[in-house]
Amino acid sequence: MRTYLVTGGAGFIGSNYIHYMFRKYGDAIRIINVDALTYAGNLENLKDIEERDNYTFVKADIRDREAIEKIFAENDIDRVVHFAAESHVDRSIVNPEIFVETNVLGTLVMLNAAKKAWELPDGTFKADKKFLHVSTDEVYGSLEEGDTYFYETTPIDPHSPYSASKASSDMLVKAYWDTYRFPMNITNCSNNYGPFQFPEKLIPLIINNALQGKKLPVYGDGKNVRDWLYVDDHAKAIDMVQENGRLGERYNIGGHNEKQNIEIINIILETLQEMLPDEDPRKKLVSKDLITYVTDRKGHDRRYAIAPDKIKEEIGWYPETMFKDGIRLTIQWFFEHEDWMKNVTSGDYQKYYEEMYKNK
Ligand code: NAD
Ligand code: DAU
């Protein structure tokens, strides 16, 4: 049975990926989820799978070399899928240090632990071992309207401390291929949205605020463009790259779905109005009057747009979920998981680990 070591699996994309993998492979794989449970890690995201025999959660920090090496020593890991990171640009502007520590040094710890476990005495690697580093389109910098797209060959030009730390970690992973032929891939994905996304990010923040009649903060002129991808499509792409990608290669992943932030906010407000029944008191609160233009993010990248041509041509992946469908699925999920949002905004979700794992 193939064993996956997933880092950051209690976060937004990592937890969706774990759900996707169990839906796809069932009992044919084993997943070990390593997460430090920072503010962004939430074990409630995984509560429906935590009793599975082929799932294990380990609370550990990827910067902790001993803890990570112990996991490799005790388990025959076949696949590493490395999500764990500090992921929010605004936080990186206020506190860059933790981004370098987790995203750069933490990635180095992961690389070294995998290399130590997988390397043979002759310097080659055990067969069928693979490390996938989950990265972002932000490493390519910023485009203007009318510019072309980000390709895998686009020069790396990060602007925020977050994207600089992700670019640095990408470079380290690439260096391990160039130097050691360490069996790796890098994926650079555009903005994700979907269930379990922490409400510091644009889409869940707007949904949550609108339903409570709170202001909807729009940075700058609201015309910055992001390329939105439904999170399940990202999970599928990661699996396809890991199984069918060429080792040593980087693959872009994107939604073919560029939208200005203000367009996104208007779509969410219109969709909420359509989906809420007339008798729901929240319907009266949802209004375009809540839109509030605020001071722009420092160094705010203007436009991201991914060309996912290579992954389509080489591997056959393409984005399947249209934005109009994905946003309804996301809003429906938030309607059905009001408690999840309440626990996240109150901080109660951080007690879940103590309660669920105290006897394990
Ligand atoms: P997230 O912030 O929701 O989750 C990050 C997870 O990593 C959390 O569970 C957190 O507890 C864990 N973590 C943080 N520091 C850790 C440490 N030192 N040790 C162990 N675990 C730690 O992030 P996300 O949005 O799910 O993003 C996951 C990955 O995907 C990141 O690498 C991010 O750069 C990348 N990415 C995100 C997007 C997006 O739109 N969200 C798009 C492209 C790429
Ligand atoms: O492109 C991929 C990246 O997408 C990932 O690597 C990051 O981890 C992820 O956080 C995301 O970064 P962004 O900065 O693009 O996402 P965020 O949701 O923070 O913001 C999306 C856009 O909306 C951006 O132009 C800033 C704007 N914004 C954001 C917030 C939180 C607002 O106008 N108002 C807000 O309140």
Automatic annotation (TrEMBL):
Asked whether the UniProt record includes Methyltransferase among its keywords, one would answer no
Which Pfam families does UniProt cross-reference here?
A: GDP_Man_Dehyd
What protein name is recorded for this chain? dTDP-glucose 4,6-dehydratase
GO MF annotation terms:
dTDP-glucose 4,6-dehydratase activity
User: What does the record give as the reaction this protein catalyses?
Assistant: dTDP-alpha-D-glucose = dTDP-4-dehydro-6-deoxy-alpha-D-glucose + H2O
| Cofactors that this protein relies on | NAD(+)
Q: Which GO terms describe its biological process?
A: nucleotide-sugar metabolic process
Q: Under which EC number(s) is this enzyme classified?
A: 4.2.1.46
Q: Which family, according to UniProt?
A: Belongs to the NAD(P)-dependent epimerase/dehydratase family. dTDP-glucose dehydratase subfamily.
Q: Which CDD domains match?
A: dTDP_GD_SDR_e
Renumbered to this chain, the signal peptide range is: none
Q: What class of enzyme is it?
A: lyase
Q: Which gene encodes it?
A: rfbB
Keyword annotations of the record: Lyase, NAD
Specify the domain of life of the species encoding this protein.
Answer: Bacteria
- The NAD(P)-binding domain sits at 5-329
